Amino acid sequence: MGDEAAARWSPERVLELAPDAASAKAGRGQAAPAKWSDAGASGRALWGACQGSGKRPYQTTVETAGPAFRCTCPSRKFPCKHALGLLLLWAEGQLPRAEEPGWVHQWLEERAARAERAEKKTDAPKDLEAAAKRAQERLARVTAGAAELRGWLADRVSAGFATFERGGADELYTVASRMVDAQAPGLANGLRRAATLVGRGRDWPDRLLAELSLVYVLADAANRVESLPAGLADTVRTRLGFSVSNAQVLESGERVPDQWLITGAIDEEQDSLRSRRTWLRGKRSGRDALVLSFAPPGRPLDSSLPPGFEVAGELVFHPGAVPLRAVFDHREEPVFPEAAPVGGTCASALAEHAAALAADPWLDRWPVVLSDLRPARHGEGWALSDVDGAALPLAPTVDPWPLLALAAEQPVTVAAEWTTAGLRPLSCWHREGMVRL
Amino acid sequence: MTTWNDLVGTVLLGTRRRTLDPTALPPGVREIAEQHTDPADQALVAAAAYTGYRRAGQQPLTGIEPEPAAAADDRPFIPPVARARLVHLLSANRPELVEEWLTTVAGKGFRVPAERLPALADAARTRVSLRAPLATVAGPVGAWLGERNPEWAFLVAAADDTSDNAWQFGTAARRQAWLERVLVADPARARQTLAAAWGNEPADVRATFLALLGEHLADEDEPFVEAALGDRAAGVREIALRLIGRYPDSASGERMIERLRACVTVRSRALRADVLEFAPPEPDDGLIRDGIRVPAGPGQGTARLRAIIAATPLRFWAEYGSPGELAGMLVEGPPLNVVRESWATAALRQRDEQWAQALVEAEPGGRSTAALIGVLSPEQQAATVAKLTRGLPVEALTRLILDLPQPWPAALGTVLLDWVAGQRDHRLVAHAAALIAKAVPVPCLGHPLAEIPLPGEAAPWRRAVAETLSFRREMHKELA
Which residues form the SWIM-type domain (chain A) (predicted)? Predict the structure, then answer.
């Protein structure tokens, strides 16, 4: 029984799966035992029947390992509110242990069979020669695109940025889509970021020049990527948008076994793709790592790395001058640690950031963990001040109040992303525990 | 030397118009820039190098003072299950349950996780009734936030001490909170301070303060309330009239008895019921002094009579008969409903149970029935409503239920839930049932209505009632 309670998820983890806030709310509404009949849980699955607006009750099944969901309701949300409600009931210990009924058992077996077939498929031998040829062709296209971009940027600099204020943003977007055609999404992203800066705020020429100069250097590096040192060459390829498959990383990436603290996670949605950045820090190695997960809108993001937990396992890093992105080769179940992490000071965090920038000048966010922080006013906004009286500003787009409320009584430890706009806090440890912001 | 700003200036203008001298760049930047020959390329590469240096060279802010910490708060946090409930409440948009939850948490002396306070404070910005319980629950951290976010200033009031600063310099809300606190902590000082400031306060503030005093009314307040009857603001007089009813032997009450005596006679008729005869009261300058101003014009005699009956101590009627007998008597002069409504007003002001009971029985569908039931003892409330649920048509009954003064005693809650359980599906019943499920007091939450599983075909409103009841029961259990 003890094991089972430990394997159960927290309600927060369940709600992470909700594709949107409305689903989370609806899911909570379904988490009442009175709504369900013949509900139960086995070691691997949950099931139940729920009376909806239809004539027949909906049959809902959840396999917890995946997690995978099935429900006979017509909802197009995934997972639907019934699956969420069932998971919540389970999380609260309100589902009785029972034998899997036939329909549940059958579904689980079918799923297992499908997974096996899929595995066989991916094992099929690949045409390595054709793949290498495709990579060569792409590099040629990217290099051509990068050369075009450099020429265009040089033209703009000799004509003057002042002309950008009229229609400059549109022009940047047009060039960005040409870079997409040239299969260099990294360059396109940089141009789109630059386009959002034009005419915004008094110092927009400053920020525009900073952004475009880095895009220029990246385009320049694309030309001579073969002659760069190995780490930097990998960084340039990644920044240009060449992806490295997980299989490649697992085969040749640097392996770091450690006890990893999940310091924070942040979700973003761009171009109808949801992504979650999860930051980790190795307890022994002190290494920072970034695990990315992606999902189309309406689908849940990977929730198996809850912030604040610790997970033992081996991370394999993507190659690069400042290796941050990583994938887990194998890992154990996350556990909640006894103690809060020990963070650094503002000065030490900035020093580490400087060292990382020296190796990767395109670095746009850097993970920091800072201890003993107290809130301080900084102009119109807020900053966090450490024991040395040094402070870092909060990014103006951040809602500061939950963090300020936590830090009002006693100094706190904060995990954040340090960006050019300021700190973006992700997690806060205070006297009573850890809070995801 | 070419600084970053010079470089930005050059690029803004264009390297065609302003030349960039690479030799003037700082050494680290110059080295990189000179790998290129075209001035535009040089400018871009120099800018990239500069950007790297500027980002890497960023220093922490210094010389800014951290804010002073909030006062310590030794109260325990709400238990973990209640934390999950709070998240649910905040997202479920059921403000009336948030209020109940906060009031319970405040009463039990818990505090809530600090990171939830901003969301609660935002909810209380639009729902004023959440403010007082939230200010208590939020405690010193709430006050800290309120001092720093003007939109949440209402959080500051409760945490303040009882020093006179808040009274002399505070906002209306803070002064009100001060008075409320000191009326309990040091009643004599509160009354003294209030009396001293009274004449200089604007009308709406006087009305608020008088109503506040009314919640802590003592014998010694009689002269103060008497004086307020002659206030220049109608709002204040209204409250004073309500409060003076609580002093059955007041001087103004005596004067009212004298006035009314001149208007009332009982006419006995052979073999038929007695008739209560009213003569219109004479205009009288003293009335204004006693808080009654009737505008001149047609109907002013009736209006004056109505005001006098409502302001006269009910003991006046003892010589004419029992409340039950009087409530059933025929009336001559003004319409019967005028007399009954005036009696009802008097019964409410004086909180007279006997009269309230008699008036409800005389006219169960009357306008004041719900308010009058509120005057009765808990057992009588339950018994009276139980009787009405059998007698009144559903339209009148559901309207009455919506108006019943809250909080309800447990016995009344049970009567109402029993009624809901026995009803068929009906739009008005569903409406009343939703209110009943939210309003019944905690001891009623274990009612069979919440316990017995509903059949699959039960109407949605029944499910909603069962859900609200069990939700509330869980909510209170978590905080026990």
Answer: 58-91
Angle in degrees, CA B177, B180, B185, rounded to 5: 120
- Contact criterion met (CB < 8 Å) for B16 and A159: yes
Q: Is the pTM of this model over 0.95?
A: no
Tally Cβ neighbours within 10 Å of residue B448: 10
Instruction: Name every chain A residue with its beta carbon within 8 A of the beta carbon of B55.
Output: 357, 420
**Record: contact A408-B456, CB cut-off 8 A:** no
| A333 interfaces chain B, CB cutoff of 8 Å | no
Partners of A418 in the β-ladder: A366, A423
Distances (CA, A) of A34 to A50, A59, A95, B453, B467: 9, 15, 12, 7, 9
Complex prediction ipTM: 0.78
B354 shares contact with chain A (CB less than 8 Å): no
Residues of A in contact with B145 (CB under 8 A): 401, 404-405, 408
Q: What ranges make up the beta strands (E) of A271-365?
A: 273-282, 288-295, 310-317, 326-331
The answer to whether residue A60 neighbours chain B at the CB level (below 8 Å) is: no
Handedness of CA A406, A407, A408, A411 (dihedral sign): positive
Q: pLDDT truncated to tens, each residue of chain B (480 aa)?
A: 788 989 999 998 888 888 888 888 888 888 888 888 888 999 999 999 999 999 999 999 998 999 999 999 999 999 988 888 888 888 776 777 899 999 999 999 999 999 999 999 999 998 888 888 999 999 999 999 999 999 998 888 655 555 677 787 777 777 888 888 889 888 999 999 999 989 889 999 999 999 999 999 999 999 999 999 999 999 999 999 999 999 989 999 999 999 999 999 888 887 787 889 998 888 888 888 888 888 888 888 899 999 999 999 999 999 998 999 998 888 998 999 999 999 999 999 999 999 999 999 999 988 899 999 999 999 999 999 999 999 889 999 999 999 999 889 999 999 999 999 888 889 999 999 999 999 999 999 988 888 777 777 788 888 889 888 988 998 999 888
